[in-house]
Amino acid sequence: MSHDYLSETPLLDYRVPAIQELIAQRGWTRLSYEDRIGAAYEFVRNDILFGYNADDALPASCVLADGYGQCNTKGTLLMALLRALEIPCRFHGFTIDKGL
Q: Is the entire prediction scored with pTM above 0.85?
């Protein structure tokens, strides 16, 4: 079974101007494959503050505009950035039950 881990989706809306401008301003496309991954990761880790967005199902562009996120929304933004940088990716998440 073939998968497409570079596609834009409703959540991974990486073609929006704000995401494309961020990538251009930071010069990430000029980096090596590995350095692009690191740059996107470090941006989400260091420049996007921790905080709870209005919803877990926000598009990456909204998370970027908010300037903060939590595990799910930061993950959405990271995935969008990676795909915009031609890094195929997917994340597998799960729910933690309060009973644990």
A: yes
Task: Tell me which H or E stretch contains 44.
Answer: helix 33-47
Tell me which residue of 81, 15, 12, 83 sits closest to 45, measured CA to CA.
81
Query: Per DSSP, what are the bridge partners of residue 68?
Result: 49
CA quadruple 5, 75, 35, 8: dihedral sign: positive
**Cα separation of 68 and 73, whole Å?**
9
* Separation CA 98–CA 61 (nearest Å): 30
User: Which stretches of the chain drop beneath a pLDDT of 50?
Assistant: 1
Name the 3-class secondary structure at 10.
Answer: coil
Looking at residue 92, what is its pLDDT?
81
Beta bridge partners of 50: 69
Cα dihedral 86, 63, 75, 90 sign = negative
